[in-house]
Amino acid sequence: MIARLILLSSGLFVAATLAGCGRGVDVPGAGAGAGGGGMPPRPVEVAEVRRQPMEQRLSLVGTLEANESVVLRSEYPGVVASIEFRDGQAVRRGDVLVRMDDRDARAQLAEAQSRQELARLVFERNQTLFESRTLPETDLDRSRADLLRAQADVERLAVRVEKAEVVAPFDGIAGARLISPGDLLTTGTEITRIDDVSQLKVDFAVPERFSDLLAEDSLVLVRRGEERERATATTAEGKVYFISSSVDRATRATQVKAVLPEPPSGFRPGMFVEVELVLRREEDALVVPETAVLSRADGTYLLRVDASSSPATIAFEPIAIGIRRDGLVQIIPRNSSLGAGASVVAAGVGALPLFPGAEVNPRPLTFTGGT
Predict the structure, then answer these.
(1) At what angle do helices 137-162 and 103-131 cross, to 10 degrees?
(2) Which pTM does this prediction carry?
(3) Which residue has the higher pLDDT, 192 or 336?
(4) Mean of all residue pLDDT scores within the chain
């Protein structure tokens, strides 16, 4: 019985083998995929390399300052006779702001003038006697010194009388007055502050790694910090006029100042502001979307699409990176074959399995960016 089963199984195996190897016999599904080529071209989004101006900007914070600012103080002790300005008043250079009681100073000046006149007469008389050889030269020298001393006293007291009127040193806005008529002022008593806000200055610090890019007359854009999210944020333009010759050891930053010749009405000295400093500008830069750049261990590349063949193929182009701004990046090609108008893969360059010579089906990608 067992021998019979073995013979039956052997017969079935031989029959199946002959059927599968027989010529002209159709086996369902055997021809599936036969005669097909490789993978179809991979769809990729592409953008053109284009030329446009590019600016490298640095975002910082700063503080607004008045063009000129001074705290007026009394130079001599005395009593306030009158105040000639109001809080917040616009003043002109030379305007009298405070008058001090100068009666005592004028009396002292008159006394000094009389002593000067007497010293002049004595000197002239002694000079005549000396010329007639009836007076020693030492007496003449003494009378000359007395005259010079008297003249100096007159000049000193004339200044004292002049300083009894406190005047504005420049055009500006007076602050709150800190004195009242009848106050007895001592030397150095604060009277008020004068700020020239016809133009403003902004003080900010630039990290030392950007020191080589700092230059006078560089453009700065300034806006108030609290207006960052507003669509109507007011921006003022200015230019750098001062760059410190040293780097602060504590902050590792360089002090920089810029002037805003036409500050908006809402800007005030002491305000916190945001500053954009234009470090450099390229007028004719080659730019692509940042997403088009492939960074690898052996360098940075763009995946140029060569549409001269059908289907289009990929070529790796080595580049250097320049200015980055608003989703765009400046590129510096390592060879001359990559220029404006070239198509490059603009999305997914790090994720798609692309390699030199890979076949692709390019589709346009629209990108925008600021200058």
Answers:
(1) 160
(2) 0.71
(3) 192
(4) 86
Q: Do residues 165 and 96 touch, judged by C-beta distance below 8 A?
A: yes
Residue in the block written with tokens 């106050």: 183
Residue 38 lies in a domain: no
CA distances from 310 to 46, 92, 165, 317 (A): 16, 78, 91, 20
Q: In the predicted model, is pLDDT for residue 12 greater than 50? A: no
**Pair 273, 221: CB distance under 8 Å:** no
Tens of pLDDT, residues 334-345: 877 788 989 999
Is 60 in a helix, a strand, or coil?
A: strand
Q: Report the SS3 class of residue 15.
A: helix
Q: What is the CATH number of the domain that holds 308?
A: 2.40.420.20
CA distance 252 to 242: 17
**Structural domain of residue 153, as residue ranges?**
102-163
SS3 of 204-262? EEEEHHHHHHCCCCCEEEEEEHHHCCCCCCCEEEEEEEEEEEEEECCCCEEEEEEEECC
Provide the pairing of β-strand 96-100 with 219-224: unpaired
Which of these three, 282, 302, 328, is where a domain ends? 282
CATH number of the structural domain spanning residue 121: 1.10.287
Q: Which of 227, 297, 305 is nearest to 266 (CA)?
A: 227
Query: Where is mean pLDDT largest: 33-42, 319-328, 359-368?
Result: 319-328
Which one, of 270, 279, 242, lies nearest residue 258 by Cα?
A: 242
Dihedral of CA 348/352/357/361: which sign? negative
Q: What residues are paired with 333 via a beta bridge?
A: 319
CA 109/CA 159 separation, integer angstroms? 10
Confidence band (pLDDT; 50, 70, 90) for 366? Answer: low
Could you give the 3-state DSSP secondary structure of residue 34?
A: coil
Which strands form 96-100's sheet, in the order they lie side by side?
A: 165-167, 96-100, 78-83, 184-185
Environment class of residue 27 by beta-carbon count within 10 Å: exposed (0-12), middle (13-18) or buried (19+)? exposed
pLDDT tens profile 75-97: 999 999 999 999 999 999 999 99
